[in-house]
Design brief:
Keywords: Membrane, Transmembrane, Transmembrane helix. This is Flp family type IVb pilin. The chain crosses the membrane at residues 20-39. It holds the Pfam family Flp_Fap. The protein has one domain. By secondary structure, it is mostly helical. It has helices at residues 2-10, 13-57. It contains 2 helices and no strands.
C-alpha cells in the first residue's frame, strides 16, 4: 500500500491536463470580459446615434 501511495505521489500525468484546463478557463474569462465591454460600448454608441437621428428628424 505504501509503494502505491509513493507511486501516486510521483505521478504527474494529470498535472498537465489540469494546467491546460486552468489556462482555458482564464482565456474564457478574458473573452467574456471583452465581449461585455464591447457590448456596453456598442449599446452606448447606438443609443447616441438614435438620439441624434431623432433630434435631426424632429420626431
Amino acid at each position: 500500500m505504501i509503494d502505491f501511495l509513493k507511486k501516486l505521489g510521483r505521478d504527474t500525468r494529470g498535472a498537465t491536463a489540469v494546467e491546460y484546463g486552468l489556462i482555458l478557463a482564464l482565456i474564457f474569462l478574458a473573452m467574456v470580459g471583452a465581449v461585455q465591454a464591447l457590448g456596453t460600448e456598442s449599446i452606448a454608441m447606438w443609443t447616441e446615434v438614435s438620439s441624434k437621428v431623432t433630434t435631426a428628424t424632429g420626431a
